[in-house]
Amino acid sequence: MKNSILKLTSTILIILFALSIMPTIVRAADDVEGIVLQKENESIVYVKGLEATEYKYAFSQNEDSSAPTYATAAKDSNGEYVAVIDNNETYNYMFIDQEGTVTTLDLTKFKSITEEEIKNVEKLTKIIGITSDETTSKVSKEDDTTITTTRGKIVITDEGTYQYEMLEILDKNGSTKNINKTAKELYDQLSELQKATKMYDKLLAEITIRDDFAKLVEDASWKDANNKEILQPEDSQEGEKFVVLIQEVRDGNVVRQDVQFMTCDRADAEGVEVTEKEETKTVEKKVKLPVTGENLALYITLAAVVLAIIIVAIRMKVASKEPKGKRFK
């Protein structure tokens, strides 16, 4: 009897020990985001939130893999933990083991980007050669004030024929209402890309830029860039900001596409800076007295008075030079 109890106790303890070292399976972690960077021979998987955490991982075609083979997460050149997939293999699911707790992730829901797409994104604003310049027009008003308005412009320096589309992303009041939200997001993400320190954030910005730029050029209403110039809108005001899409067309085919930014009277850290300036100059006004009958009479009277004064002065001078007579007693 005692032996039976001991055997039963031992069996229970063994089972409890086995259960204690078995990982806990957490399924369908839909709130975990990830990005797959597709390189030439392998793909690198970045899991959001695990950039600085060591973990083990495994891949499978099926969500219910019973005995996956785990590998230890490696570090990329930026020191962040990543999982690696051989491009000869195809998987739908990823298992992450953190101290015995396993999370199942759906790889098909992860965002992805290729190395070639990253190169294209990083070339934006530098694909088509441009410079900034300005053009001046003068308008005279009735109050004798001349207003000189200088309009900024983008000048394309590369040879070829070009088209453009200009989209407002910030109005004169600093508001983003009634603007192109995709263009605004493109501008913001290009700024975020310069500030990103984590590889996951950098890849996410590049994916957003890639998708937004593709959508904008697809929906664009292209206009000819006459003389390879893109002028600031005539009615634009201080504080307004625009995204400017540019494409080169050769024999009816699009050869290159790029993006720039135009800001009205305000400095900008990304892309090209162009401004609108206003200078007011007061024109000197000279008025001549008109010749009327009344004024003419005044002139004649004044002349007569002056002439009389001159005659009296002459007579007095002549009289003073005559010899004085002798007196006789």
Structural summary, described in words:
Helix content is 29%, strand content 33%. It is an alpha+beta fold and 329 residues long. The protein folds into 2 domains: 22-109, Immunoglobulin-like; 121-282, no CATH class. Strands 1-9-8-4-5 form a 5-stranded mixed sheet, with no helix packed on it. Strands 6-7-3-2-10 form a 5-stranded mixed sheet. α2 crosses α4 and α3 runs antiparallel to α4. The longest helix is centred in the last third of the chain and has 29 residues, at 293-321.
Quick synopsis:
This protein is of the alpha+beta class. 29% of the residues lie in helices and 33% in strands.
Top keywords for this entry?
329 residues, alpha+beta, 5-stranded mixed sheet, 18 strands, 29% helix, 33% strand, elongated, disordered C terminus
